[in-house]
Specification:
Low-confidence stretches: none
Order of helices and strands: HH
Mean pLDDT: 90
Number of helices: 2
Helix content: over 70%
Structural class: mainly alpha
Number of domains: 1
Largest sheet: none
Oligomer: single chain
Shape: elongated
Strand content: under 5%
């Protein structure tokens, strides 16, 4: 069995946490127009972490 590096696991969980947290926030509080840019940036960062964890396996 291939042993997954600790940084890969951490980056995966950071990405998943950002995605779920930002979308739970959107569902609970809505997304005012002034928060859309921040939401987009956070989701791009999450995408980076998820892509890193995917390609570094």
């Amino acid at each position: 069995m291939v042993k997954i590096k600790q940084t890969v696991k951490i980056s995966y969980w950071i990405g998943i946490t950002i995605v779920f947290a930002t979308h739970l926030y959107m569902l609970g509080y809505g997304m005012p127009a002034d928060q859309i840019v921040g939401h987009s940036i956070l989701n791009l960062i999450a995408g980076f972490f998820l892509a890193y964890s995917w390609f570094k396996r």
